[in-house]
Amino acid sequence: MSDKPVLPCTAVLRHVTDVHCHPTDSPLVLTDDELHRLEITICPMATRIADQSQVRDLARAHPKNVVPCFGHHPWFSHHISVDGRTAKEAHYRQLFSPKAEQEEIFERLLALLPEPTPLEQILSTLRNDLQTFPNAMLGEVGIDRTFRVAMDYFANPRQLTPFTIPLEHQLTVLEAQIDLAVELGRNISLHSVKTQQVTMELINRMAKKHGERWTNISLDMHSCGLSPQTWLQLEKAHPNVFLSLSTAINGRSPNLKKLIATCAPERILVESDLDDIRLCTERTWAMVLIIAEVKGWAVEKEWADDVPISDSGVVRRLEGNWKGFQRGRHKHAVKQNRAARKADEDFHSEGSEE
Ligand SMILES: [Zn+2]
């Protein structure tokens, strides 16, 4: 999967969007040159208190091909106080519940952790950013069951502590951010790791809670790790949920091709999930080629306007999906379409095993 693909011409690349990446995490200084050379559109994700301003700056400097994404990642959700408890030690002690034998490591970690920031303050900055950039999305937000808090997240190698962030805490931080995105009509890039059931329940709950305002926005399951069966349930129940795939995360999954085959053609997006801006185009394109292969779609070598959807290649189809994602206002499929889809699903689930 790490083979370097041959890139198409600029006229084709201009229609490609990397829907999830992390250029502000790169140790490389983002030079204007690198960004000016960028031919695709990127969606840089913010993840924590310190990097919201970096995404802001990036979007201001490159409004043409940057869709800024603001939000707080579950890996940094412990920095946020959700219950008004802002005394540092009490906050982290309550979250991590250190056992007696973990006291020493807790003390060492505590010294390195920031003062907790109240959720209301997080939300007010987030509201500001989303309102300042009318095309901005919420991201990267989510839930993660495998993550363990590192002694120093930025150390290399990272030394992991035994502490995890309780799922209820992650969910409180996530739901508050989702509620804001729904209120402002903004799309979401969601991280979900080893939490299939909880994620399904969350999305069902959001749909119920927000009704039509929920289907007015779109939700992207970023580097989607769901099983093809779970994806299918989600796709059927929620017309506003998309999935995006990266070679970085999905590349080695034995489920990748099955997932692509299972996914409705209009719900797939592509991403790199990378920090290094110099690799975003190449890695996003590698996933475009995999999708083209599995779906049997042609790969555009040049760009022609006014091509009917039936003759569309992979780039035009994925571009259409991205436009549909951005537009939102999704409708539940009518019964007839469901029956047609069911037949298609049966076909895929029988025929696409690797
Ligand atoms: Zn990410």
Automatic annotation (TrEMBL):
The lineage of its organism: Eukaryota, Fungi, Dikarya, Basidiomycota, Agaricomycotina. SUPFAM superfamilies: Metallo-dependent hydrolases. This is TatD DNase family Scn1. Pfam families: TatD_DNase. Residues 328-354 are annotated as: Disordered. InterPro entries: Metal_Hydrolase (IPR032466), Metallo-hydrolase/TatD-type (IPR053044), TatD-like (IPR001130). Residues 341-354 have a biased composition (Basic and acidic residues). It comes from Hohenbuehelia grisea. PANTHER family: CUT9-INTERACTING PROTEIN SCN1 (PTHR47345:SF1). Residues 328-340 have a biased composition (Basic residues).
